[in-house]
Design goal:
The protein is mainly beta. It is built from three helices and 15 strands. A seven-stranded mixed β-sheet has the order 8-9-10-11-12-15-13, covered by helices on one side. It has a six-stranded mixed β-sheet with strand order 7-5-3-2-1-14, with no helix packed on it. Helix 2 links the parallel strand 11 and strand 12. The longest helix is centred in the last third of the chain and has 11 residues.
Length: 199
């Protein structure tokens, strides 16, 4: 399974059976990358997550194997501030992946129970509009995924007012830094996937 990370929450996963683009952005000061994939998933309808024009040939994900969509909120007030957020769980090449989008709820126990033991967790860590690094750390501790990739954090030239990734990484004794594109072959631990924007 090959993973490309374009910064913010924009990813391209390419597996043996299908490919999927996740949360392409626009107008946040970063280079915008076009992708070609079978599927597209946008966790919510904010401009920094729903630039469908970047995803060529893709049809939108619907519930049903290999995809499961879990509704959550973008804030701590049941969506009153920023609306709803969708979490996507998908199976690719025998790996169970959970993409948390712009999760803004802290300690959502229903979500934690659904995601316990997931193989690969993609989690926002920048705060302000999502859980912050402490909230992300708590989810990791409770879900206990095999591997974690942090996302939705500040990058050079980015205009979204969020924290960098370092505060999250410093919560752990060790992590592995790798460049995008990255072939995930089942390894565990915290993976700092350095985006194609540079960091």
């Amino acid at each position: 399974m090959k993973i490309r990370y374009f910064g913010h929450s924009h990813f391209l996963f390419v597996g043996n059976d299908y490919s999927i683009t996740l949360d392409p952005f626009k107008r946040i000061g970063l280079k915008e990358f076009k992708t070609e994939s079978d599927y597209l998933f946008c966790s919510h309808e904010h401009y920094d997550h729903n630039n469908r024009d970047l995803a060529f040939g893709a049809r939108e994900v619907k519930n049903g194997y290999p995809f499961e969509i879990i509704q959550t909120f973008h804030d701590e007030k049941n969506g009153a501030l920023r609306g709803k957020n969708s979490v996507l769980v998908f199976e690719m090449d025998g790996v169970r992946v959970a993409f948390l989008g712009d999760l803004g709820e802290y300690s959502n126990e229903r979500l934690i129970e659904k995601l316990k033991g997931v193989d690969l967790l993609l989690i926002p860590v920048g705060g302000t509009y999502t859980v912050d690094y402490n909230g992300a750390f708590e989810y990791v501790e409770k879900i206990k995924p095999k591997a974690v990739i942090p996302m939705h954090y500040h990058l050079p030239n980015g205009t979204v007012d969020i924290d960098g990734v370092d505060k999250f990484l410093n919560k752990f004794k060790s992590y592995k830094a790798v460049n995008s594109p990255f072939t995930y072959s089942g390894e565990g631990g915290i993976i700092h996937l350095i985006s194609e924007q540079g960091e």
